[in-house]
Amino acid sequence: IRKYCRDGDMDGATTILEHRKQIDMPVNEQVFKSLVFGHAKACDYNSSDKVLDIMQSSGLDVNASSYGAKLEGMVLAGEPAEVINEEISKLVDKGIFLGDPEYMRIIVAFCNKGNPEAGKLLSSKLPRNTGYFNVLRNHIPTLIQQGQLDFALSFLATFEQAESMDRSNTNPNKDDTGFFVLRCMANSNVPVSEVVNAVDKPD
Question: How far apart are alpha carbons 180 and 184 in whole angstroms?
Fold first, then answer.
C-alpha cells in the first residue's frame, strides 16, 4: 500500500486495502498514514482528512506524524510554501507540533519539487529534539542525491549539538560521525574537488 501511495496510484492502494479487509487483516497506523500521504499527493485533501477522521474514530493516535504525512503529500502535490506554513500554524493553534522527522520529510519534499529555498527557510523550525542526529543521518543522503549538496552540508555544523542531545547515539568514534556524508557524496558522483572541500571545511 505504501508503494502504491508513493507512486500516486490510489486505485492500486485501495485494491490492496480492500483485499486486507476481506481476509480480516487489521489496518494499522502505518497503513493509514500511507493513505493520508497518498491522497494528499493526489491533491485529494478531503479524502486525506477523512482518513485522519477514521483513524481517530478507530482509537488510533492522530499525531504530528499523521499530519506530517499529509503536509509532505501536499508539498509533492505542488502546494506553495505559504500554504504549507499556514497549515503548520493551524496545527500549532491546535497544540500539535511537528518534530524533526516531519520537518525533514517536508524539507526533502520541497527540494524534490525544485524549491530548496522553501526547505531552507523551514529548516529554521527544526526543534532538534532527542533523535535529531539520526534524523539527519536518514535525510542528508537524500538531499545530496537530489543535488542539494550545500544545503545538506549546512547541517554538518549541527552534528556536535545533535550528538550531545541524542541519547540514542552510541557511536564510540566521534571522529567518524560525518563519514556517511562523504560516502554518500562519492556514491552520488559528486566531483572529487567538492568532496575534498567538504573534508577541509573548518566547521
Answer: 6
Which single residue is written with the C-alpha cell 505559504?
A: 82
Amino acid in position 157? A
> Cα separations (Å) of 140 from 30, 62, 134, 158?
23, 27, 10, 12
How confident is the model over 170-176, as a mean pLDDT? Answer: 50
pLDDT averaged over every residue in the chain: 87
Distance, in Å, from the CA atom of 130 to the CA atom of 83, rounded to the nearest integer, reads 28
Q: Is 203 helix (H, G, I), strand (E, B) or coil?
A: coil
Let me know: does 110 contact 143? Beta carbons within 8 Å. Answer: no
The CA distances from residue 111 to 39, 52, 76, in Å, are: 20, 26, 10
C-alpha cell of residue 84: 504549507
In Å, how far from its chain's centre is CA 170?
Answer: 23
DSSP of 6-38 = HTT-HHHHHHHHHHHHHTT----HHHHHHHHHH
Give the residue with greater pLDDT, 161 vs 145: 145
Which of 159, 158, 71 is CA-nearest to residue 119?
71
- Interior angle at CA 15, CA 9 and CA 17, nearest 5: 100
Backbone angles phi and psi of 21, in degrees to 5: -65, -40
How far apart CA 135 and CA 102 sit, in angstroms, is: 10
Yes or no: say if 185 and 149 are a contact pair by the CB < 8 Å rule: yes
Instruction: Report the distance separating Cα 60 and Cα 27, nearest Å.
Output: 10
